[in-house]
Amino acid sequence: MESFSYLGIVLLTLISPLPTEVIMPLTGFMAAQGKLNLVYAVLAGVLGSVIGALPWYFAGKYLGEPGLRKLSHRSGGWIKVSMEDIEKSKYWFKQYGGRAVVLSRAVPGVRTFISVPVGISGMPVLLFLFYVVLGATIWDALLAGSGYVLGDRYYLVKQYLGPASNVVVAILLIAVVVLLFRRKTRRANKSKSSLSAKKLESKL
Fold this sequence. Notes:
Layout lengths: L4 H11 L4 H13 L5 H25 L1 H11 L8 H14 L1 H6 L6 H4 L1 H7 L3 H26 L5 H6 L2 H40 L1
Helix pairs in contact: 1-3, 2-3, 2-9, 3-4, 3-8, 3-9, 5-8
């Protein structure tokens, strides 16, 4: 980051094994030292997220799951695809649509592979980019801002904000349970209504 400045943030977001929860608080710390501009640092992180999401989006759109499996196998392990994460991302997207793209920025693993089911679904690329930019801006700004406030204790951000992804998952799971319960209740009410109508018709 010191060598390449904002380009370094983009590159780290793209190719580094370090998660955003480590990279962005460090940018906030460097901004507090006057080495970076906080706004530009967040924008660089968002740009890295967008560039990193597009290949998975187009892979989902043009290759699908079977194509990704073949690509992973033929690459000899250079391209690693977690089908478990893709399945989880598919479930998220099926339940929440575009909101899943926004919320997934707070969940490592899902934030990458959510692009695959979005591409498979045929969502317009501009709409997809809107959701990615929105989610990445919120999450990156929160992480970088926390690092800015904490200063040389920026490394504590991951310790405290890392569990936030678990909170997001918990909220989504609760929402799914509520949604399923409502659907089941509606179906039960419909079946009762249809039975009542049939009984009334038989009496008439």
